[in-house]
Specification:
heterotrimer, A mainly alpha (536), B alpha+beta (226), C mainly alpha (121), B: 226 residues, Helix Hairpins, Immunoglobulin-like, 2 domains, 3 helices, C: 121 residues, mainly alpha, binds protoporphyrin IX containing FE
Chain lengths: 536, 226, 121
Amino acid sequence: MTAVGAAGVRPRPRRGWLGTLASTDHKALGAGLFTTAFGFFLAAGVLALLMRFELARPRLQLMTLHGYDELFTLHGSTMFYLFATPVALASGVYLVPLQIGAARLRWARVALAGWWMVIAGGLIMWMGFLTAQGAADVGWYSYWPLSDMPNSPGIGTDYWIVGILLAASAAILIAACVLATIVTLRAPGMTMLRLPVFTWTMVVTCLMVLTAFPALVVAMGLLLAQRQLGGVFSGASGAFDYQHLFWFFGHPVVYVVFFPFVGAIAEAIAIFSGRRWFGYRPFVLSLLLFAALSMSVWGHHMFTTSAVENRYFSLTSTALLVPAGIEYFDALATMWRGRIRFATPLLFALGFLVLFVIGGTTGIFVGSPPLDYHVTDSYFIVAHFHYTLFGGSVMGLFAAVYLWWPKVTGTLLSERLGRWHFWLTMVGMNVTFFPLFFLGWEGMPRRVADYPRSSGWETLNAVSSAGSALLLISLLVFLLNVARSLRRRVPAGPDPWGGQTLEWATSSPPPPENFPAPLPPVRSFAPLQDLREAAS
Amino acid sequence: MRRAGYVAGVTDTRHEYDTLAGLYVPIGAAVVLLVALLVVAFAWRYRARPDDPDEQRRPSRIHRAPRTEALYVLVLACVAALLLWRTYTVEGRTDHAASGRGLGVLVTASKWHWRFDYPRLRIVQRGTDDAPPTLVVPARRTIDFTLRSLDVIHAFWIPDRRFKRDATPGFVSSFSLVFPRTGFWRYGGECSEYCGLRHTWMKFHVAVVSPAAFARWTRARQGGAA
Amino acid sequence: MRRPGVAILVWAALLGALAVVLWAVFEEVDYLSVLMPAFAVAGTALIALAGWRAARRAGERAFAPQAVPETSWPAVLAALALALVLLGLEVGTFLCLIGAGLFAFAVGGLAREWRAERRTR
Ligand code: HEM
Ligand SMILES: [Cu+2]
Ligand SMILES: [Cu+2]
């Protein structure tokens, strides 16, 4: 334990990877959680490729029916519980203290424990593959009674539940730390209405994690009890109760993994347009409305059950187009009459805008029960949610990575490889997922390892599988870029892009205490842009 | 042959779906195209041209337009209202409970088979693991379905009818469909809710026959099965 | 909206309004559809209250000396111990016991860290 110097300045931590594994510095912690989550993204991506190879042609080629069930369960679960949610929160852990001019993360030890809970949870979930009956095979939302012991006896499913319990609790803990940081550790002058846009998206993200994830913990706890002891769920009401509990978490999680990246692309668009984000106050209000609505739409996953008030959930789901429309308006208005520089972060941000709108409009489409009756649980839905999750979250994530990589590592990524990465992803993404809309519309159900030869679905499936190979290549280009950057170490300097928020006012990477020099005055949500505009 | 609209007081779900999708899809496609167009147009129009000596341009410093945004929100709200109004209208029709006057068919889903009972005709259609059963229905007549499951949640989906409904164990749901066109749909019915190992292959065929042919089929089945 | 408590309360109010539409206008009385939104609204209100109180003391705290140790192995151990306890529910009680023991050990370590911090303040 080290004593602390004046003004809260801690001595520089000893370098060495062992120390970073238990570091309470939010930067080491954020980077560690981020890397963990990204590792799970790669692992889940491998499972996705296996599925796409299997589906490239009818019949079973690579695996058994059960193997396929394990794959989609672990792919979806890993993507949500171990990649997207942790990566969103990790971005907050790293960036929020820097954006609000704080020296640290509140309750850092809690977040540290959270990181290790994610690691442990992930390993336990994947341990299922080593058991005799294989990994969990119940789908990422594991409807009861399918997920009950008699129907899914494999212990892999129990491991899967434990993994989720750990990852979900970790998310709650970490979100509490980030929110507490925002509430209590803002620099002088940083009022709530001067929080940077990304930090605002983290506020609503954390609020949603704190209010929605407990439902998941309860659902998984009850499911575990039901499997081990029985007597928790019974009959149709048990089945519906489970769905209510799950989707009360299951819809908001989609926004938890989306809002932070809206914040990231907002920062990227503002920076590379040379303008601050347009319409800040209405945007903040719309963000609150967005989050509140997304907590009120869970029943749209139950339209075909005949057990929910379809008209209410259709109302709230359709209403989502209003805050989403505001977000798009502000993005375009920020570009309007700017001086736009095509750096890689901006490319990914624009890609996000174009791809997410496809996920968004098809989301409004399935928010209409009579339309949802046909396409729900088909490949149309698979296409829809990959446009939101890949086109939205992952594109936004890459925008964030390219934007903040120089800050985090102090080195630059190659712009040329970045452009290759972007275009390959853009093409690969559309080739992989656009055909799925047609497959679903024509009647191909999700979660099938095989389809009839007579169906006429061969071509579209083959195209989709080819697209996933492109996505693999694009990812390899990204990894190459990262490796190259870490080896060459081209110094980035404190502010390579002309940033607008406080993190760009300190060195790259920031020192342990974040801001050794006095902070610039904070008079708006873009303090560095204030200085720049005052000077010209 | 009537192909669209109401048949025997019950909605042609496919017709309803196509009409409603005919509103949603063009609007959605227009929005996607507009966004893509604006993104590309703005990115091009306002790109920085560092080597252009004429470029004295300074980025605009207008950062708010509350009136424009309010107006825009109004437009968005109107679009939402239009979509909802049409959705509610159509849902009112497709959610018709069984009329009680049509041909009753009890659909039973269980791992991993479909079974169709025609209680009034005393006919049962079953399949085997390798040969799924066929749902035989007369064309242009209301079919009152009663749907149940014996084990886990399944879902009854006939893509051609643009309709599906969950089969939840312990819960009976009823709905009515009409089949306007005669024909045979190989694997025209599917289980769309993941239900375990053989979910992939939990399908049935759909045969829509003329009323006369249906009567013949009924007689043959009753004679053969009795 | 300047104060964090207010911003969070605005969100609670929006959530509450949407829930009231469900309950009153659409007359949904399924118990989970009542309980879950009610919990969310109440939870958010509590967070707002806590945030409001914490923010009042925020000024001093933001730059107060920090004695959090650079590394905290007990926090890591607590997380792993918890994982062992949960895993023990499937694998066997012995693992639960080991996990609980390690957890107690971790809590001891955390307590020591806290005491050291108290002293340096
Ligand atoms: C890397 C490119 C990706 C490919 C090629 C891919 C492919 C697939 C495939 C083939 C399925 C199975 C569909 C089925 O059988 O029903 C699937 C399901 C799923 N994917 Fe992806 N995916 C990708 C990325 C992602 C990402 C980034 C996320 C989330 C952040 C994600 C989340 C999901 C979820 C939640 C499911 C549903 C799992 C289930 O049915 O239980 N995927 N994906
Ligand atoms: Cu949803
Ligand atoms: Cu089934």
